[in-house]
Structures are given as C-alpha cells and as structure tokens.
C-alpha cells in the first residue's frame, strides 16, 4: 500500500509569495503596453476620437514609462524599492480606474500618462526586490519564472484585450487591473521585507527634467505632424524644443557629480551598439502592430479577439525560440543571436509588404512568424550582453538606459509610423477619389472608422469607396512595413558593426572580480 505524498510544508509555499506579488505587477504593467491595440477601433467610435488621439492613447503610456525609468530607479535607491513598488501599484490601479471611466479621449490620455508613472515605479523595482527576497538556487528559479511571465505578457496582451473588448467593452481592459493590483498590493505589504534606501548624494533633477522634456517634445512633434504637417509652427517648435532639451541634458550630465547617465559609457562602442539595438528593436518589431490591428478590424471586419489571435504568432514564435535560446545559442557570442535576430525581425516585417488591397488576414502571418523568431533570438541575451560591457559600478545605470531605450523606441516607432501611415492614406485618398471631403475621409480611415466612411456615401457609390478603403489601407501599411523592416535590418547591421566579438566585461579582465553582474537577468519590456 502506497502512502500519499506529503503536502509541501506551508513555509515552502509561503516563500514564493513575494515572487507572485512581483510577477503580478510586472505582468500587469507589461500587458498594458499592448492590450489597448485591439480595442482602438471601439475606443475611436465610442469617444469620437481622431487618429492623433489614438496614437496618444497607445504612446503616452510608453513615453512616460521611458522618460521616467532612470530617474525613478535612482529614487528607489534612496527611498527603498519596496516603498517605490507599493507606490507604483497604487498609482497604476487608480490610473487604470480613471482610464476605464474616461468620458473623452483627453481624459483617457491623461490617465494613461499616470499609468506610465506607476509602471515606471514598478518596473525599476522588480529586479532589486527579487534580489533581496531570494538567494542561491531560489534566486535563479525566481528570475526564470519572472522572465517567463514578462515574455508571456507579450502573447497574452492582444488576446486578453480582444477577449475583454468582445465580451464587455474596451473599458474592461483597464478595470481588469484593479483586482490584480489589489492582490499584488496585499501580498507585497504582508510578505515583502521593507528595506532602507542606501544611495546618497543629490538626485540629478536637471538630468531628469531635461530628458523628460526631450523625449516628450520629440514624440509630440512627430505625432502632431501627421495632422498638422511638418511645416506647422507647433511641430517645428516642438522638435526645436526637443533638440534644445537634449543639449541641456548633455550639459547637465557632464556637470553632475551623480548623473542619471554617465556619458563616458557612450565611448564604449559595444554598449552604444546594444543600446541602439534595444531602441530600434521595439520600433521595428512591435510599433507597426497598432496599425495592423486597425486594418484587421476596421477594414477586414474581424472582431477584437480575432485580431488579437492574428497577432499571436509573433509572440508565440518568440516565446518558443527564447525558451530554447540557451540550447540553441549557448556557445555563440551574444552579438550573433542579437544581430541575426534583428535582421530576421526586419526580414519578417518586409515580408508583410505583400499585403495588398485584396489581401485577407493570412497575408501577414508569414511575416509575423519570421519576425517572432527574430524577437526570440535577440531579446533574451540583449540586456546581459549590454551589462557585460560596462564596469560593475555602472550596471544599474546601464540597465536603466537599455530599458529606457526599449520603451522610447516603441514610443518613437508609434509616432513615426503613425505619421507615415496617415500621410500615405491621405495621399492615396486624395489621388484616387472624388469624395467631397477627401481629407476628412482619410482622417476617419486612419482613425479606424472605415465603416463610417462607407455609411456616409450613397449606396451606388459604396462599391467604389469600398475599393478605395482597401487600397488606401494597403498603401499605408506597405509604407509602414517597409520603414519598420528596414529599421530592423539596420539595427542588426549596427550590432555586427559596433559590438566587439567576445569582448570581456571589465571585471572579467581581473581574476579577483566576480562576473555576477553580467548574469543579471533582463528586465523584459516586451509587448
């Protein structure tokens, strides 16, 4: 007679509660980067929003997240990362409630900015909290699970967004954050040990302000150019302000005794190459999905959940390759899978230029799979490779710079590709239609209101306008995919050109130094 297996002791289960609390927050903040994509057409119809507003709904969160990561990380070193994580959870939950209740696009965009503040506070705290909560083999297990959750958020985001939008409405994609945040908050208070901040010295306020102004003004100018044109005074002033703010940031960092970013790191060509690759990866691999989703729903009339499932092959391919990256690329220099992966991302997106006026959703599948393979190759080792190129005392700073680059790349990708898409649709409609208001029709198409354009014309003209709608979207997407694809290929060439093969980390050159920092797991910000 066999005896039943004994239940694991309560202490063995309780020790993983901190990991659950951290994973819940990480999953929530990363899902919210992509969960809105499939809900955009419904948002546009419900809030009567413009194409520019749709861009800001997606972009504001990523932009604030990118602008604040470095400075919030420095605050965590001073105030304590548990305290900062709790602050992030509360802010994120309240902002999610405001998003779900938003009566108009302006309120929704402002609430998305507040979500970015909470997300930055959580994201910068996760690795420090895991390091403090676990040691030895448990630490490796914890980081492995946390990394899988981070990567899984990319696959779940579009599908979860589609499911909630289909079954309820777009507001549910924000309300779902409330119980998740409440559970993470309870477990953090009860089971994560409080620690005191250890960093000293004056916080680099000048660097924080100038970098925030730079990134905000740059993205604002790029997004507004889609509606106002490149010659608009608003766009020119905004882009000029971004240049001045960047120069001020450089001066502030050179003068600061405790800078957010040690500009001396930029003399390291390997670090520069990998940071640039992180920025360009998100722009190439993920930014175009916003406009792909609008096409799938607005033109092909797929439901939100169907549109989410169409985009899944990218995330699933990335998940499979990333899960086997150690076995596949363990003996390769890190720049090999990163460089090849970026080229594959570019090649996959270039395959998507096969979309034409008569295409169905299946036309994008080969490109999504190929680019997903590239994401799975490039992302698992990108952070550790970047950290291995800097001195041990700059590892935290370098991690913040790479994560900032990834989020800023996504924000800039949305802005640039959105402007390209809107201008191309406008040109196509103006050249190929006899509508009374081609500019208004083009704006409605870009904003996901293709059915409204069709409903506004007499029945005998709908067949021609239907053809126009499909042709305009195909033209816009062709240009978007071309630019994103070339960006991916260029990013791969940058890695091969700048990153030195087998360059040891500075501490690896000295036998007495331990290479622990180089193995720090990547703080994934995948979509």
TrEMBL record:
Ion transport listed as a keyword: no
Subcellular location: Cell membrane
Stored Pfam families: MFS_1
Regions that span the bilayer: 16-40, 60-77, 84-103, 109-130, 142-164, 170-189, 201-223, 229-251, 271-291, 303-324, 336-357, 363-387, 408-425, 480-499
Signal peptide start and end residues: none
Membrane topology: Multi-pass membrane protein
Protein's UniProt keywords contain Transmembrane: yes
PROSITE patterns according to UniProt: MFS (PS50850)
Residues covered by the Major facilitator superfamily (MFS) profile domain: 18-503
Record's keyword terms, sorted: Antibiotic resistance, Cell membrane, Membrane, Transmembrane, Transmembrane helix, Transport
PANTHER family associated with the record: EXPORT PROTEIN, MAJOR FACILITATOR SUPERFAMILY MULTIDRUG TRANSPORTER MFSC
Protein name: MFS transporter
């Amino acid at each position: 007679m066999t005896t039943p297996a004994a239940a694991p002791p309560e202490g063995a289960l309780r020790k993983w509660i901190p990991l659950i609390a951290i994973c819940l927050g990480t999953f929530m903040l990363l899902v919210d980067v992509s969960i809105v994509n499939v809900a955009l057409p419904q948002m546009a119809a419900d809030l009567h929003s413009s194409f520019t507003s749709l861009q800001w709904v997606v972009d504001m969160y990523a932009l604030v997240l990118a602008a604040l990561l470095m400075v919030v990380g420095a605050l965590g070193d001073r105030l304590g990362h548990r305290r900062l994580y709790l602050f992030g959870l509360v802010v994120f939950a309240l902002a999610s409630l405001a998003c779900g209740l938003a009566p108009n696009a302006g309120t929704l965009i402002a609430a998305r900015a507040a979500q970015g503040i909470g997300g930055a506070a959580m994201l910068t705290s996760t690795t420090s909290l895991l390091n403090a909560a676990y040691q030895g083999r448990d630490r490796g297990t914890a980081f492995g699970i946390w990394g899988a959750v981070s990567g899984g958020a990319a696959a779940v985001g579009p599908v979860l967004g589609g499911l909630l939008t289909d079954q309820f409405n777009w507001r549910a994609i924000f309300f779902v954050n409330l119980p998740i945040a409440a559970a993470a908050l309870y477990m953090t208070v009860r089971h994560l040990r409080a620690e005191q901040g250890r960093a000293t010295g004056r916080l680099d306020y000048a660097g924080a302000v100038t970098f925030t102004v730079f990134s905000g003004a740059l993205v604002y100018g790029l997004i507004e150019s889609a509606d106002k044109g490149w010659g608009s005074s608003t766009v020119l002033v905004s882009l000029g302000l971004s240049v001045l703010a960047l120069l001020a940031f450089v001066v502030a960092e050179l003068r600061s005794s405790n800078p957010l970013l040690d500009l001396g790191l930029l003399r390291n060509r390997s670090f520069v190459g990998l940071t640039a690759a992180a920025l360009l990866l998100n722009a190439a691999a993920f930014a175009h999905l916003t406009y792909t989703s609008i096409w799938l729903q607005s033109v092909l009339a797929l439901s939100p959940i169907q549109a989410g499932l169409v985009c899944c092959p990218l995330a699933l391919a990335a998940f499979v390759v990333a899960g086997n990256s150690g076995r596949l690329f363990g003996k390769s220099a890190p720049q090999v899978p990163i460089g090849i992966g970026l080229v594959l991302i570019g090649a996959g997106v270039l395959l998507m230029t096969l979309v034409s006026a008569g295409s169905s959703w299946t036309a994008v599948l080969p490109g999504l799979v190929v680019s997903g393979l590239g994401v799975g190759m490039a992302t698992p080792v990108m952070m550790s490779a970047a950290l291995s190129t800097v001195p041990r005392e700059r590892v935290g700073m370098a991690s913040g710079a790479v994560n900032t680059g990834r989020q800023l790349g996504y924000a800039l990708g949305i802005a640039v590709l959105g402007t390209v898409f809107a201008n191309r649709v406008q040109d196509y409609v103006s050249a190929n239609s006899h509508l009374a208001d081609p500019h208004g029709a083009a704006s409605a198409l870009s904003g996901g209101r293709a059915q409204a354009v069709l409903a506004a014309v007499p029945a005998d003209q709908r067949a021609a306008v239907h053809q126009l709608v499909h042709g305009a979207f195909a033209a816009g997407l062709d240009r978007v995919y071309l630019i994103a694809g070339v960006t991916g290929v260029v990013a791969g060439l940058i890695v091969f050109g700048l990153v030195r093969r087998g360059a040891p980390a500075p501490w690896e050159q000295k036998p007495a130094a331990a290479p622990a920092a180089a193995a720090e797991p990547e703080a994934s910000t995948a979509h």
